Amino acid sequence: MSKQELAVIGQDTDGDCCGRLASAPLDDERAAELAKVFKALGDPVRLRLLSMIASREGGEVCVCEMTPAFDLSQPTISHHLKLLRQAGLIDCERRGTWVYYWVLPGALDRLAGFLTTPQAGQVPA
Amino acid sequence: MSKQELAVIGQDTDGDCCGRLASAPLDDERAAELAKVFKALGDPVRLRLLSMIASREGGEVCVCEMTPAFDLSQPTISHHLKLLRQAGLIDCERRGTWVYYWVLPGALDRLAGFLTTPQAGQVPA
Q1: Phi and psi dihedrals of B99, rounded to 5?
Q2: Mutate to test the interface with B, among A9, A13, A20, A21 (most CBs of B within 10 A)
Q3: Is residue B93 helix, strand or coil?
Q4: Which residues contact A17 (CB under 8 A, 6 or more apart)?
Q5: What is the b/e burial string over B41-63, where b = at least 16 CB atoms within 10 angstroms of the residue's CB?
Q6: What are phi and psi of B15, to 5 degrees?
Q7: Which GO terms describe its molecular function (chains A, B) (predicted)?
C-alpha cells in the first residue's frame, strides 16, 4: 500500500525538474493522488504525529510514546497514523505489544521537491 | 489576510534550520496553522488551480482562463481560489470584469523548506 502511494510523490517522475507543481498544470489523475497526501497533512494531530516521528533521532517511535502527548484515545491516534501510512508518508511494524512507526525514506523530501519552484533552484550568476 | 497566514509557512521562523517538520515536534499552535495550508492543498481542484497559476509564465492568470478547464461553476472555482488565498498561497486583484491571480512570492518554497528533512541538505563529504 505504502509503495503504491509513494510513487505519487515524485519517485516515478522522470527527473528532478518534472512533475513539479510549478512546472506545468497538473493533470486530473496526479492532482487526485497528490491531494490525498496533502489531505493527510491537513490535520493538526497528524502533522504533530508526523513531526514527532520525523524529528526522532534514530527514526522510530513507539505508538506508546505518542499517545500520551495527545488528549485522544489510542484508537484515534492509530487511525490518524493509518491515514499517514496510507498517504505513503510513514510505515510501521508491530513488535510484541507495540507498533513502531518511522518516516518512509525520501517521502518528505520528494513532497518538498514537488512544491519547490524552478526559481528556487536557480543559482545567481 | 494573506500576510497573516503567510507567516505560518516559515517567513517568521528564525532561520532555515528551524521550524521544520523534522527538526522538532510541532507545537499545537503551529500544527493548527500549517494544517490549514495543507488542507487547502488537499483537494484536487485546488491543486490543479494552484498548478495552473504557479506554472504560468508571467505569473498571472485570469479566472476567466481557469474556469473552462473544469466542469465546475465559476462561483465554485472562485470559492476554491478563496481557500488558496486564505491559506496564504495566492493573491488576486480585480481589473475590470475579471479577477487575476498569482502565487505569493516564496510561499511554495517556504512550504517546501518546512517539509525538507535536515538530511536532504547535507552535502556528501
Answers
A1: -110, 135
A2: A21
A3: strand
A4: A23, A118
A5: bbbbbbbbbbbbbbbbeeeebeb
A6: 115, 160
A7: DNA binding; DNA-binding transcription factor activity
Question: What pLDDT digit, counting tens, does each position of B11-66 carry?
Answer: 444 344 457 999 999 999 999 999 999 999 999 999 999 999 999 988 899 999 99
A22 with B69: Cβ contact below 8 A: no
Cell numbers found for residue A80: 490518524
- Helices B74-86, B44-54: inter-axial angle, 10-degree rounding: 80
**CATH class of the B28-115 domain in this structure:** mainly alpha
| Tens-digit pLDDT profile for residues A102-118 | 999 999 999 999 999 98
ipTM above 0.90, yes or no: no
Please name the helix (run of DSSP H) or strand (run of DSSP E) that holds residue A109, with its range, or none. Answer: helix A107-115
pTM of the model: 0.86
| Cα-only R_g, chain A | 16
CA distances to A28, A79, A124, B26 from A62, rounded to whole Å, are: 37, 15, 44, 18
**Domain extent listing, chain B:** 28-115
Contact A116, B109 (CB under 8 A): yes
Per-residue model confidence as pLDDT tens digits over B55-111? 998 889 999 999 999 999 999 999 999 999 999 999 999 999 999 999 999 999 999
| Angstroms from B37 CA to nearest CA on chain A | 7
Compare all CA atoms of chain B with the CA of A31 and give the residue at the minimum distance. B44
